[in-house]
């Protein structure tokens, strides 16, 4: 699956506007690992994402660089030995502790069209992404 970064996104959107999938996860999340494995096995879902969307995989607790997104700067918030990225909190509806995995889909105008906390099965994802790509 082709993935990009938030810094790539602005340039890509200027050249070829497409809906954006933001996948928030953490290294310690076992559900995230199972979900990624199942999704990568589904060729139809992978092809759909690669053709019609930009995908940003975002490790919410290990990404430490400053990120500019939708005209704002977000930074890593250190908390003892760990921390969380400010952007993960901004994207999550649960402001105290985001639920992982978290899937956010924005249309080509950067408006929220889909939000899903927790495990997302490839079949459900394909159905939602086909609806979104038809918009």
TrEMBL record:
A Pfam family recorded for this sequence: Thioredoxin_2
Xref: SUPFAM superfamilies: Thioredoxin-like
Top-rank taxon, per record: Bacteria
InterPro entries cross-referenced by the UniProt entry: Thioredoxin-like_fold (IPR012336), Thioredoxin-like_sf (IPR036249), Thioredoxin_domain (IPR013766)
TM ranges: none
All residue ranges annotated as the Thioredoxin domain in the record: 1-134
Stated name of the protein: Thioredoxin fold domain-containing protein
Originating species: Chryseobacterium kwangjuense
Taxonomic path: Bacteria, Pseudomonadati, Bacteroidota, Flavobacteriia, Flavobacteriales
């Amino acid at each position: 699956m082709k993935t990009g970064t938030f810094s790539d996104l602005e340039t890509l959107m200027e050249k070829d506007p497409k809906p954006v999938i933001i996948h928030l996860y953490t290294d310690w999340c076992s559900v995230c690992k199972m979900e990624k494995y199942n999704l990568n096995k589904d060729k139809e879902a992978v092809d759909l994402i690669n053709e019609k969307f930009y995908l940003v995989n975002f490790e919410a607790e290990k990404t430490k660089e400053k990120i500019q997104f939708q005209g704002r700067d977000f930074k890593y918030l250190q908390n003892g030995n760990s921390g969380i990225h400010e952007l993960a909190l901004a994207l999550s509806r649960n402001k105290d502790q985001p639920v992982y995995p978290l899937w956010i889909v924005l249309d080509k105008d950067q408006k929220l069209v889909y939000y899903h906390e927790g495990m997302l099965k490839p079949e459900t994802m394909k159905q939602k992404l086909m609806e979104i790509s038809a918009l």
